[in-house]
Amino acid sequence: MFCDLNFNIKNTLSKLFGLLIVLALLGASPVSARDFTIVASPQEPFKFRSDGEYMGIDVEVIQEVMKRLGVSYTIKLIKSDARIQEEAKKGKVDMLLLYSKKESRMAFLTYPEQSYVDISWNFFIRAEDEGKISYDTLDDLRAYTIGITKDVSYTTEFMEAGLKFETAPRNDLQIGKLLANRFDLVPLNTISTLYEQKNAGNLDKIAYLPKPLKTKPYYNVFVKASDFPGIAAMPAKYDQIIQELKSDGTIKAIFSKYLGDK
């Protein structure tokens, strides 16, 4: 019986050793079998869940990127940004979605070159005023009443320009006040406002001035502490794919799906 047990152990070890050799020859390892883990905070229209499915601009862009990379992945939404960054520092995740560049983050995140999202705040106006109101400098706005929201961080230059303001307690009140002629224009988060007004059926009633009050690029970032096989080479491949998605119209089509053609 002891001889049979000894034979079975040797036989099992021999098969395991053979399997490891095959995996090595194929350039694989047991670690690479896991999914690439992507984490983000929920934020419409970029990443959110609807009827149990992940949806949003970033979700669809990443889906296309991972398909072209040939990488199996999992997306998780976590409400706490502090927790997300802690998970990244510990190497428990591989990528974070939609992060602006900050010096404090450079120690644990690798930023790609390519961004497809600029979070901008543009001045929204009524559709009938398009072509009548222009904005190149803040002096161009002196003749108008501008809606602003309490406790929102605008630019210092804007707030100290001596313009005429009407203040509201919440951003979600501003388009209604604009359409009710309470003021002439209002600076709002451009992408979020377009998404909200598309869902509200108001896109044909509003327009926005092309020059933003402020803007900042956001990136999908790679985690430096990640042990995912080949992650060091992924940012360069990611940049190439994002350029392709911009050139072939894929990203534009995804934005139009969520925001309309404004």
UniProtKB/TrEMBL annotation:
Highest taxon listed in the record's lineage: Bacteria
Signal peptide: 1-33
Record's keyword terms, sorted: Signal
InterPro entries per UniProt: Solute-binding_3/MltF_N
Ranges for domain Solute-binding protein family 3/N-terminal: 35-262
Keyword Signal carried by entry: yes
Pfam families for this protein: SBP_bac_3
Keyword Signal among UniProt keywords: yes
Transmembrane segments: none
Name this protein carries in UniProt: Amino acid ABC transporter substrate-binding protein (PAAT family)
Originating species: Aestuariispira insulae
